Amino acid sequence: MDGNGRWAKKLLLPRIAGHKRGVDSLRATVKACIDRDIRVLSVFAFSSENWNRPQEEVSGLMDLLGIALTREVPNLHEQGVQLHFPGDWSKLNSRVAAGLSEAEATTAANQKLILNVCFNYGGRWDICQAAAKVQALGLPMTEQSMREYLSLGHVPDPDLFIRTGGEMRVSNFLLWQMAYSEFYFSDVLWPDFDACELDVALLAYQQRERRFGRTSEQVSVEPQNSDEE
Ligand code: FPP
Description:
Blueprint lengths: L3 H7 L4 H21 L4 E8 L7 H24 L2 E4 L9 H13 L6 E9 L1 H14 L6 H7 L10 E4 L18 E4 L9 H12 L9 H6 L8
Parallel strand pairs: 1-3, 2-3, 4-5
Helix pairs in contact: 1-2, 2-3, 3-4, 5-6
The site of farnesyl diphosphate (FPP) has 19 residues, from helix 1, helix 2 and helix 3.
């Protein structure tokens, strides 16, 4: 969800105003996903590296998370959204961590859309924490055992990765999980992202041929998805 800071700067507003507007875009995108019967949405709300931002912005984002939990969870619950907050909670203040835990518990039985709000998340952290768990349990280090202990082990790998804000990099997001995702980069700043922009990305996705290592000829005879690999 990149571009909040630039969106705010263009309007001579503080960066946190862009993040606030970013929450509005996220709310609209969740609704758009539900309307389109998309079953899983994973967003990068705060990266392991975002602690390096100015203290004022970091605490603004922490406060925003607390406010968003209070304001948004009842509506999300009503819409049938199952919430998860993949990431390293050990550095979060205990009140915020308790809020995340409560939101996950409240919405655990919902089935309409799984929303993963990755917070204090890093793809490298995720791989290391999964490997540590696999090792501690004495399990063989296989793709299957790793998959189970990754913090998005409850959902299939993403089909489509969308990055807004014109940057063309992954920035330590779902490194393991995006092995076969289709990438879509948009110049639109996240606060301006809406259902129409989502449709543009989905249209681009529909035009891709997903081969998963096979040839085009094989794919046309027998389509396959990544989870069957
Ligand atoms: C990147 O844009 C965005 C973030 C680091 C924060 C994303 C957070 C939200 C959209 C709000 C939702 C968050 C919660 C707490 C639920 P940037 O700041 O790097 O933008 P820039 O590239 O224009 O500077």
